[in-house]
Fold:
Amino acid sequence: MHEAALTQGLVNILLKEAARHQVRSITLVRLKVGRMKAVEPQALVFCFGAFTEGTLAEGAELIIEPVPAVATCRGCGGDFEVIKFHFQCPRCQSRDVVLIQGDELYIESFDA
Ligand SMILES: [Zn+2]
Structure:
């Protein structure tokens, strides 16, 4: 389950940011999660709850905003959504494609 390591990293960043802004408690956290990360939202919520226990983010609501995976085709220049890790241009069938979106995993914002 790679969600545990990912969440631990996110919680570390969150607590560091909270300290920097002298926040006393965090009530809500918005996460951007790219489809390519292939994370289970339930696992993420579970890990978040576990890692924030006893911190100022304990009990905070976690909102996960999925980011669709999008690639650009080097053959025809078109953009398309990558479904189920299928890296092939639907227009020209080229496999020479570059992922331009969908690999993100970061805290977009949080409410204190
Ligand atoms: Zn193409």
Q: What stands out?
A: The beta strands are 28-34, 61-67, 70-73, 79-81, 97-101, 105-111. Residues 73, 75-76, 78, 89, 91-92, 94 surround zinc ion (CB under 6 Å). The first helix runs from residue 3 to 20. The two ends are 29 Å apart (CA to CA).
